[in-house]
Design brief:
The chain is mainly β and 270 residues long. It has one domain. The protein is built from four helices and 13 strands. The longest helix has 8 residues. The two termini are 32 Å apart.
């Protein structure tokens, strides 16, 4: 957090100021155990899966998410947030009982729905912007629908197993370009039933917020001036290294009773 100097020494209330900012009307945190998510692969990777004797899940990463917000018809002021997470998983694939494993990347997805309170508002919003020639223009109107913000850490890679496709349409996703770029090519989704595939189990922690742009009145004490001086980068690499604090915690991990229980935000542990 930046350090600021408050010029008013007594920190006395100076004035009330109206600002336009995003207010969090509702939020929730959750933990999901995503069992037996079907993985999808490129053609080359699928050929290795077809010959695999065993697989081991090395890591998983959430690389993208699509979010759709719609009002709940039967409950005024509430909105459903439909979220689709897209994951890239890295697997060790053994093609023989005694050979070295091959590293294969695959993709999978998970759909989640959350209902949160976002209040009401039916106004149309018009804003001015500066055009290419420096003149002002009015942008297209937008509604003041709340926006959904999703925060997530990379999932915990729990387990993986070889299996067969139960249905050719099983958990088929339309993966975004971000995923296909990481995998290095188009993803094969139309493989027939009973073809070999991989199922993974992931642990996902998320925080979902419903935010609406509103005008708020806040107390103002004074203008803030940063106290921290800007640092240059003209130091030699070794001089910069000497200024880095020694990573004691990395050499001496904290003891169990030094780590606080819970997520620290009052969320449900179930």
């Amino acid at each position: 957090m930046a350090d600021f100097n408050i010029n008013n020494e007594n920190c006395d209330f100076k004035e009330a100021c109206c600002i336009d900012a995003g207010r969090i009307y509702d939020s929730c945190c959750d933990r999901d155990c995503l069992e037996d998510l079907r993985c999808f692969f490129t053609a080359d990777a699928q050929a290795k899966i077809n010959q695999a004797k065993s697989v081991k899940l090395r890591s998983a990463e959430v690389v993208s998410a699509s979010i759709d917000v719609e009002p709940v018809n039967f409950n005024r002021g509430f909105f459903s947030c439909d979220i689709t997470f897209y994951f890239v998983v890295e697997l060790e694939v053994c093609l023989s009982n005694h050979g070295c494993p091959s590293i294969v990347k695959g993709a999978t997805c998970f759909n989640k729905r959350v209902i949160l309170f976002g209040s009401d508002g039916n106004v149309k919003v018009f804003t001015s912007a500066i055009g290419a020639k420096g003149c002002f223009k009015t942008t297209e109107n937008t509604s003041n629908m709340p926006r959904c913000v999703v925060q997530s850490v990379d999932p915990v890679a729990l387990s993986s197993r070889l299996g067969v496709v139960r249905d050719c349409y099983e958990n088929v996703c339309a993966f975004p370009k971000t995923v296909t770029d990481i995998l290095g090519g188009p993803i094969v989704t139309d493989i027939p039933a009973c073809s070999p595939t991989v199922y993974v189990t992931l642990g996902l922690f998320t925080v979902v917020q419903l935010i609406r742009q509103v005008q708020m009145l806040i107390p103002v004490y004074d203008f803030c001036m940063p106290e921290k001086q800007c640092t240059d980068t003209t130091d030699q690499p070794c001089d910069v290294f000497k200024k880095i604090k020694f990573p004691t915690d990395d050499f001496f991990p904290p003891r169990p009773y030094d780590i606080s229980d819970g997520c620290g935000c009052g969320c449900n542990e179930n």
